[in-house]
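Project standup — Tuesday

K.O.: blocked on the structure for the chain from last sprint. Re-posting the sequence here as requested.
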Amino acid sequence: MATILVGTDDGIHEYSPDGSTGAVHHTGRKVTAVSREELELWTILDGREVWRTEGTEQWKAAGTLEGLRANCIAATRAGVLVGTSEAQIHRLADGGLEPVASFDAVEGRGDWYTPWGGPPDVRSISEDRDTVYANVHVGGIVRTRDEGATWEPTIDIHADVHRVWAIPGYVLAACAGGLAVSEDRGDSWTIRAEGFHATYCRGVAVCGDTVLVSASNGPWGGHGAVYRGRLDGGSFERCREGLPDWFADNIDSYSLDAVPECAAFGTADGRLFASRDEGATWAEVASGLPSVRCLLVMP
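H.V.: unblocked you, prediction finished:
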């Protein structure tokens, strides 16, 4: 049975899809990202510390980010990468976290922005068989095909990407105008929006042959919902069975995750929902949690 790791304002809480509880890790710490590579787990605590396991339940500190906020972490062919504020990427090395200088040289970097005038962030990182993708908010999706030696832009920066998810054959991006899809590693993109009540999308995850997308009225939420559609195209339908009609807040970018046998999402008001049929039906697994910041579904 799958395990769901829920990152909150008070540690990582373990659940199974039937609601059984497990251990709680990092009590008292704000967990803003959790990721996995085979038997290893990686997490970001309080926006600055990187911790890891080594195939056991034992966690140990791996590095600390100074002067920046750590947003996301992913173990990739380019190394263990941490996306940060001020649109930087750091790589975990023996001496801790080191900036990836090549990322600062990407074409178009000077055009990145945020709607409120602050510096942009690296918001999410993903990879397929041979390419690593970094989502900049707002700056589109930048890719590397040579393990981080060089980077190049892909989608138009004004697509306003909130999460990138790559698998062999598809790159998917939850954007302010719908779900962007590329079948050629980012060379070209199409937008899927049919069936959404509103096109402001924050999260995306693939569950078997189904793609799940969270959407709402806009950046401050309102009529938040999760949608499901076929990975290979077509219209989306709102997930309804077992769920409230709407959520007041956004289902955020890292609060939706899936593996083929299980999907899950968490909410800002501390609820956890899971599905074992690719999002056709859902059950409330937990409530009363601290605000959910991120989650990871493990097979």
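K.O.: great, moving the ticket to review. The chain has a mean pLDDT of 96. The radius of gyration is 18 Å.
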